Amino acid sequence: MYSEDQLVMISALQHLAFCERQCALIHIEQQWAENRLTVLGEHLHEKVHSGKSESRSDIKVSRSLRLVSYRLGLVGQADVVEFHLDREESRQGIRLEGLAGKWLPFPVEYKKGNPKKYREDDVQLCAQALCLEEQFNVHIPEGALFYGERRRRNFVKFDKLLRDRTEKLAEELHSLIDSGITPPAEYSPKCKNCSLLEICNPKWSSAMKRKGYERILFSCEP
Predict the structure, then answer these.
(1) Residue 100 class from Cβ within 10 Å (0-12 exposed, 13-18 middle, 19+ buried)?
(2) Are 101 and 37 in a shared domain?
(3) Which helix (H) or strand (E) holds 84?
(4) Which of 14, 80, 100, 176 is the Cys-Cys partner for 108 at CB 3.0 to 4.6 Å?
(5) Which of 87, 89, 90, 63 shows the shortest CA–CA distance to 77?
(6) Which range is most confident: 52-61, 176-185, 193-202, 208-217?
(7) Tell me, what CATH number does 133's domain have?
(8) Rounded CA gap, 50 and 155, in Å?
(9) Which residues contact 95 (CB under 8 A, 6 or more apart)?
């Protein structure tokens, strides 16, 4: 179990799943840069968080709900958590104050663009579900990612494979941050969409490494 002081942002898992170096630059070195994609993402989240909670007969919508898992050492804020009325006696649900019946949490995360190749958004959503499960003592089988480009939901099953990957990344995240070491750059095609491209400069770093500059620089240190 982690203490309050050891909690790390859930969003860092998405960064780690995308690139270990990007995660370290943001969460160890506290570096950040805007590009077109990050601006679009921030605008989309502002619209989501500015909305009020909604209520329908079988769905209650909560926005900006604080999430925390002391088991995984994660903390964050959900874009949207829908509470669906549990109409099947075989399904597990929770009680909501002032409402009859049982309700099942269903996390929804809003993202710009389209689904990612490496499922890093799925990891972030699964982490939210794991937090909700710990907070409400309930099993959550699935959630959804809403992509601004597609304008529709992409449903995500929280199967064992995704849960295991998410928990493993949470362990790696704490190890990375505890080390305080930013990994060296390795250029790949996905770098072109990274907001930290100019800060990271992976092409230059990779070229210098191939030429042995890294060995020369370290050998010159006092």
Answers:
(1) exposed
(2) yes
(3) strand 74-85
(4) 80
(5) 63
(6) 176-185
(7) 3.90.320.10
(8) 24
(9) 102, 103
What confidence category does residue 114 fall into, taking pLDDT thresholds of 50, 70 and 90?
confident
Tell me how far apart the alpha carbons of residues 8 and 21 are, in angstroms, rounded to a whole number: 16
More confident residue, 149 or 123: 123
Helix (H, G, I), strand (E, B) or coil at 6: helix
What's the pLDDT score for residue 151? 84
Tokens of 127: 């982490």
Q: Crossing angle of helices 120-136/11-18, nearest 10°?
A: 150
DSSP 29: S
Query: Which residues are 63's β-sheet partners?
Result: 80
**In which domain, by residue range, is 198 found?**
184-222
pLDDT score recorded for residue 38: 45
* Torsion angle of the four alpha carbons 137, 110, 61, 88, in this order, in degrees rounded to the nearest 10: -50
Spatial contact of 131 and 74, defined as CB atoms under 8 Å apart: yes
- Please write the tens of the pLDDT for every residue from 175-184: 999 999 999 9
Q: Hunting for tokens 């995984």 — which residue is that?
A: 72
The two three-digit tokens of residue 91, written as one number: 């399904």
Total domain count, the chain: 2
